Amino acid sequence: MRLLVLSILLPVLATSRIIHGDIKSNEIKEDECILPDALRQEIRSYETVANTIINSLVNGKYKGGTYKELAKFVDTFGARVSGTENLEDAIDYALDLMKEYELENVHGEEAQVPHWVRNHEIGELISPRKASLPVLGLGSSVSTPDEGIEAEVIVVNTFDELRSENVSKEVKGKIVVYNEEYVSYGETVQYRSQGASEASKLGAVASLIGSVTPFSMSTLHTGWQNYEDGVTPIPTACITKEDARLLQRYQDRGEKIVVKLDLSYTRYNDSTSRNSVGEIEGSTDPKKVVLVSGHLDSWDVGVGAMDDGGGAFISWYALAVLKGLGLKAKRTLRAVLWTAEEPGLVGWEEYNRTHFEELSNFTFVMESDEGTFTPLGIEYAAGAEGGCIIQEIVNLLAPINATQAVASKGGVGSDISAWTSHLIPGASLLNANEKYFWFHHTQADRMEVLDPDDLDKATALWAVVSYIIADLTEDFPRTRDNAHSNMVNVIPT
């Protein structure tokens, strides 16, 4: 099942990463929206409630709460890698936190998850000069032989160049280095996810990629990669953008490049993890669900404060604030903290399988996994009418200047991307995340990336939007595109 789902979802996930600086502007103009007066007035009637939520987080009792709880969490557990005991301890802690804040129906839901561990990694430049070559293995990479691999290097910028007649015949027995240009995450991440297999098809013994980032201070960016069926797996790791360019310059000058790699990894059997769930049960229609989410697992570098501690914590803490304020919507508000997102949306996959028959009751789904920097509004996949409803709701966020509603060209979120591409209307946090990929999957993903005031505002936005959608008289509309298109993306096999 996992291979089918991942083959469908990975392209969706890659292209769904919306960075604020890349948006050309799909923001709704007020004169483009025609909503029934009764619905428009109903949404505007929530102004007092929205202000109460915002004030409680920006100036009141809950100010600084998201940051405080997140800092304690990441300081206690650090990195939370799929399959590890530390991740399970962190999940226990998160479940206890939700109980402490009196969320309802708090529980874990099991999922089998992969467990890949890096043991040691050494890279050396042997020629044209001797120097250390820092490397960081990519998720699921195989190891080098015990004696390592010492081989000549060939540098390419694109897959087309790799496959070209002049280059492809020179690859056998060499280490392929990708010195790819960063265009966007969605376009550039293909070199991380597919680079090893593409090099192996031509006989390469290993591959290295320049880290997928628009800005580098000699930072290494890891991430999951996938071996293509029927292709010999070869060791693969990232190097810094600076070193990728250095190797390019050597090659351009006609100098022979030799690198030695000693990479050791272990792939254990899958183990049991859990998605973490907490709710505020609906007052009149509890079977209908508005879901908010982020993922609790992280990479083994940094502490996963930004990716995705911030998204996970604004999700459950938004419900904690609503509970503390005595706000109970008509429909159930459910926080899901996904497990094993990093190795390929594995927690979502199991949740989708076990809840598939209930998805018709999922009114709206939300996920924050693109940073929790200064919130600007909502990015949505909800059709034209849904977009107009969201614009009316985010207009109530004027006190924190988060009134943008931007339509996604596909799905939104990472774990929820298949749902929002084809089945369920949904949203992600639109935030000033231009620097997100500076820190993504690096040692620099720490609490210092985040700002307490930004987290307060992001939590307020999350709480206001989810609460209003869950409490409106009518269910959030499912457009034809949401409801019927290409159901294979979410049907369990």
From TrEMBL:
Major localization class: endoplasmic reticulum
Alphabetized UniProt keyword annotations: Carboxypeptidase, Endoplasmic reticulum, Glycoprotein, Golgi apparatus, Hydrolase, Lysosome, Metal-binding, Metalloprotease, Protease, Secreted, Signal, Zinc, Zymogen
SUPFAM superfamilies: Zn-dependent exopeptidases
GO MF annotations, alphabetized: carboxypeptidase activity; metal ion binding; metallodipeptidase activity
Gene Ontology annotations of biological process type: peptide catabolic process; proteolysis
Compartment annotation: Endoplasmic reticulum; Golgi apparatus; Lysosome; Secreted
Endpoints of the signal sequence: 1-16
Pfam families tied to this protein: Peptidase_M28
Stretches assigned to the Peptidase M28 domain: 275-464
InterPro entries from the UniProt entry: CPQ (IPR039866), Peptidase_M28 (IPR007484)
Keyword Secreted: yes
Superkingdom, natural source: Eukaryota
GO CC, one annotated term: lysosome
Assembly: Homodimer. The monomeric form is inactive while the homodimer is active.
Family: Belongs to the peptidase M28 family.
Name this polypeptide is given: Carboxypeptidase Q
UniProt source species: Dendroctonus ponderosae
Taxonomic placement: Eukaryota, Metazoa, Ecdysozoa, Arthropoda, Hexapoda
